[in-house]
Inverse folding.
């Protein structure tokens, strides 16, 4: 059963039948708001990019996965590819995480989204991120990326080692930046 998260809400990622998750997928989906013109509406393409930043216990960035580095150094985090339009239904970009294969130093994973081309969230609708249990493709949590505005990036959520398991917190902080590099100051405040 999926939980619709609100900003700041935290959930444990323990499976309902007991045990912990082993492999998850963070999915990002969005649609472009049609441009209104003299002769009606016209479809536009919006290039949002999902990225995952990996931090250690001292809150230092130790790895990153994004459209120019599709796999983490330990191979546990894999980006499935860059969608430059937002076309299609469902997840437009996904990042798969093998929680059991993460380097022991990896304590926090922060998922961010940004517009590489600089388009703002006022041009985006139906945006969401969701966490899926890869063992059975069930949706564990969903966070609607609401709050359209003049920002072109958002810190979506973080997944943190929580004792023997993991927890997820919806962040939903707005930011500006074309790549994850630009978002490091905003992300550092959430780690």
């Amino acid at each position: 059963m999926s939980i619709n998260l609100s900003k700041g809400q935290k959930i444990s990622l323990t499976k309902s039948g007991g045990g912990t998750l082993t492999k998850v997928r963070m999915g990002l989906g969005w649609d472009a708001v049609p441009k209104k013109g003299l002769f009606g509406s016209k479809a536009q393409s919006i290039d949002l990019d999902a990225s995952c930043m990996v931090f250690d216990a001292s809150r230092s960035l130790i790895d990153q996965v994004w459209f120019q580095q599709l796999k983490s150094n330990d191979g546990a985090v894999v980006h499935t590819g860059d969608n430059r339009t937002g076309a299609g239904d469902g997840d437009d970009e996904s990042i798969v995480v093998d929680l059991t294969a993460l380097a022991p130093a990896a304590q926090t994973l922060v998922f961010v989204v940004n517009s590489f081309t600089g388009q703002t969230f006022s041009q985006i609708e139906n945006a969401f991120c969701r966490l899926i249990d890869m063992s059975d493709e069930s949706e564990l949590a969903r966070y609607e990326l609401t709050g359209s505005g003049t920002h072109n990036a958002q810190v979506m959520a973080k997944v943190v080692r929580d004792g023997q398991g993991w927890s997820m917190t919806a962040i939903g902080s707005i930011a500006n930046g074309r790549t994850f590099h630009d978002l490091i100051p905003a992300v550092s405040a959430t780690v």
User: Anything to note?
Assistant: The first strand starts at residue 3 and ends at 4. The chain has a mean pLDDT of 84. Helices lie at 180-188. The radius of gyration is 16 Å.
